[in-house]
Amino acid sequence: xxxxxxxxxxxxxxxxxxxxxxxxxxxxxxxxxxxxxxxxxxxxxxxxxxxxxxxxxxxxxxxxxxxxxxxxxxxxxxxxxxxxxxxxxxxxxxxxxxxxxxxxxxxxxxxxxxxxxxxxxxxxxxxxxxx
Length: 131
Description:
This protein is α+β, with helices and mostly antiparallel strands. It has 3 helices and 8 strands, in the order H-E-H-E-E-E-E-E-E-H-E. Strands 4, 5, 6, 7 and 8 form a 5-stranded antiparallel β-sheet that branches. It has a 3-stranded antiparallel β-sheet with strand order 1-3-2, with helices on one face. 24% of the residues are buried.
């Protein structure tokens, strides 16, 4: 697999489109941080790291609106890819849907959202947009 983060985003997107309640994803430090951010911002219900012998997996409980059954994530888009990395400074930090969505940025301080990066005055690699 050449792009594990893209695979992570695709699995989450497909699970939402299929109406699944839970999705399992092979674990890595970057995927775990991305999952933590999605949980903190309210895009997923919960997550758990399941330790296994061959490899660890992340079990994610997806979030839907209780009455309308609409998914919490409308769109999740990969921005930077292994073939074309997208780096931004603090002055070019993207705003997703004028602040309603989030951009996940990989910085020297770890993975954070665009809002946190502006507050900390640091730039980095734009991983994905979520709204």
